[in-house]
Amino acid sequence: MPTTDPRPSARLSLVLALMAFSVFINYVDRGNLSIAAPMLKDELKLSPTQLGILFSSFFWTYAAFQIPSGWLVDHYDVNWVIAVGFFVWSTATTVTGLAHTFLAVLVARLVLGMGESVAYPAYSKIIVQHFPIAHRGFANSAISAGNACGPAAGALMGGMLMERLGWRSFFVFLGLASLLWLVPWFRWMPRTQRPSGTDARHGPGFKEILRQRSAWGTCLGLFCLNYLLYFQITWLPYYLVRDVASP
């Protein structure tokens, strides 16, 4: 049940900080392949078409698993759903650094999309369950700040670290270090009871959602925003390195 406290507790503030940091890691992980692309393409002798497939493969499973992930969040303990998803996507990042073929990298990116698909359904469920209505705007803003800072920090720090350590070491280090997030999460995650199947059915159905103009406006806005955002964190870094920086 949502808390009736007008202000989030110190524990909930820590939960929000952990969620914001997890989405920061989330966006670093989904964008790091583009930073490694020039080195990855040369080492694995990839064609531009294969590189494009690797860039897009994350989104195949990320989009396809949004609805199943929402179902999992509604029917199981959301704290454990996001923990499992976090473990899966961090492990996929680590495995990417160990891959030596196009197919191996492709599989790792597909798994990455599956793991990361639980993030936003889980964030929304936790915010609705535990944060007072008056503070949900701030909570969502913290999540948005994490996803904005992730690609920026990933491009800056990832580029410098890959130049010094190599792309493989960066992926392995990032994936293994990210797993440390699970330690404070298990310590401070909000304590909730598993929702019953009846509670999970109380929300609006698809037809009711599709009748809302605000839903269509949100979808259109996200489409326009994400088209630009994901171009920036897929092809743009490779273009800047190979076509602009090269003499």
Would you summarize the structure shown here?
The protein has 247 residues and is mostly helical. The protein contains 13 helices and no strands.
Overall strand count: 0
By secondary-structure content and strand pairing, the structural class works out as mainly alpha
Q: Look at the structure and name the CATH superfamily.
A: MFS general substrate transporter like domains
Q: Which shape, going by the Cα principal axes?
A: globular
Instruction: Specify the helix fraction band.
Output: over 70%
Radius of gyration: 19 Å
User: Class, according to the CATH hierarchy?
Assistant: Mainly Alpha
**CATH overall fold name:** Growth Hormone, Chain: A
Instruction: Give the topology string: H per helix, E per strand.
Output: HHHHHHHHHHHHH
